[in-house]
Amino acid sequence: MSGVFVVVEGSEGAGKTTLVAALADRFRADGTDPVLVREPGGTPAGEAIRALLLDPAHALDPLTELFLFLAARRELVHQVIRPALAGGRLVLADRFQLSTEAYQCGGRGVERELFRVANRAATGGLEPDLTLVLDLPPELGFQRMATSGKGLDRIEREDPAFHGRVAETFREARGPGVVHLDATRPPERVLHLAWAEVAARVPGAPGQVPH
Ligand code: Z5A
Questions:
Q1: 44 C-alpha vs ligand 1 centroid, how far in Å?
Q2: What letter does residue 31 receive in the DSSP assignment?
Q3: pLDDT, tens digit, for every residue of 96-107?
């Protein structure tokens, strides 16, 4: 039995956490209990690495940063995601490998080929069945985050040019299972658009959510 792996991606404040929670609620209402994960994190070691990565007290070399994100990913894939998929579960992830391409390659300038090889070592070649990219201009994301009152982590404190390159990498992402959604729309509308994509890939998924 093989499960389904769905990833939600996008820049800061694009609404990833909101959408993952809404999709999970929708599935639970119909009797499917998804496995929810976030990156970096999701395992004891991964959460410790997350704290280190997001702490503004640390100035990290770009490759150190890359390897820490990939170390957390390796733990998550092997301890949580692969076993869940092998058990036929639906896995909903808040960020995965496209974030590394956007932040470490697009933002920091890490060479793409190095990222691909190292990422493959971390994931063992696992690819999402669906990657939903929430498209939102970074300035709108930062406005939303200011409204939410959450403090800025180490990476969020980078300059606007960095965040512009990250957003551009997300915007240009293409490939099997990659779908872009207009994240400027209200949360219910984003959920509706996302559900149409997810339900098409999850066997036995219930019908549409209301507009
Ligand atoms: N990172 C990396 O560099 N490399 C990697 O490989 C990985 C990650 C995996 C993790 O932070 C950081 O690690 C992240 C990238 C980097 N850093 N940066 N910068 P995170 O994942 O914990 O946090 P985040 O993703 O940056 O931000 P966030 O606050 O979690 O954003 P979000 O999940 O996309 O948004 P949200 O929490 O769902 O919503 C934000 C606010 O907007 C909130 O008040 C909502 O109520 C509101 N909202 C949500 N949707 C809407 C819509 N549709 N309309 C209006 N308002 C909305």
A1: 21
A2: T
A3: 999 999 999 999
